[in-house]
Amino acid sequence: xxxxxxxxxxxxxxxxxxxxxxxxxxxxxxxxxxxxxxxxxxxxxxxxxxxxxxxxxxxxxxxxxxxxxxxxxxxxxxxxxxxxxxxxxxxxxxxxxxxxxxxxxxxxxxxxxxxxxxxxxxxxxxxxxxxxxxxxxxxxxxxxxxxxxxxxxxxxxxxxxxxxxxxxxxxxxxxxxxxxxxxxxxxxxxxxxxxxxxxxxxxxxxxxxxxxxxxxxxxxxxxxxxxxxxxxxxxxxxxxxxxxxxxxxxxxxxxxxxxxxxxxxxxxxxxxxxx
Length: 275
Description:
Distance between the termini: 29 Å
Number of helices: 6
CATH superfamily of the largest domain: GTP cyclohydrolase I, C-terminal domain/NADPH-dependent 7-cyano-7-deazaguanine reductase, N-terminal domain
């Protein structure tokens, strides 16, 4: 299914049996064109999805419940539209599979075809996933800093970013729980915690927090918002290294967690309090 038939915001019947055709793609180039990204972007990274509502029947007909972690490189041609993925996963509910590995292989094949790229899937039992526990981002929480913050901008404004004059090159990690964006199709709010790690001239933390808050009324898919944040910080602050990682609150049994980096690195493996 193409992005001309998005399922978000549309009343849709759940498939009663296995239905990979319900998966809907959104070309990444649509969001990147707004950022004047043409061709190979200046970042690498992944989109890390967690599917909490995964179930199927074993060979004898007994239900199995699990959590799937789905990783898609940011260089796939397409995104997968979230509601279509939810419908697809639920189409497995009455299907019989001999093992979790067979289900993982099926998901990898079908989602890879949708996004036109490589997809990796790890499936966890409820007990094994519980053992991951809750964590927090490393670094300094901008929300707790003792600053006299006055905020009046709620659309993305990169002019709020600035460097601290007279500083030396530093390596810093800042995070905030105050990122909010909105679905461009339904208008529903998307809540997230965001980690920004960089090496370069010191970025003013007050301006950085105001910049994060300025996304509060912005409409964009999770992946596009993180790429915009990465691109604007990279262009205005010109760090030697930069990582931007957002962990969004789950909706509809799915959370989407985009990670973008100036170098090929992996994000910290963790689950936050709102997930």
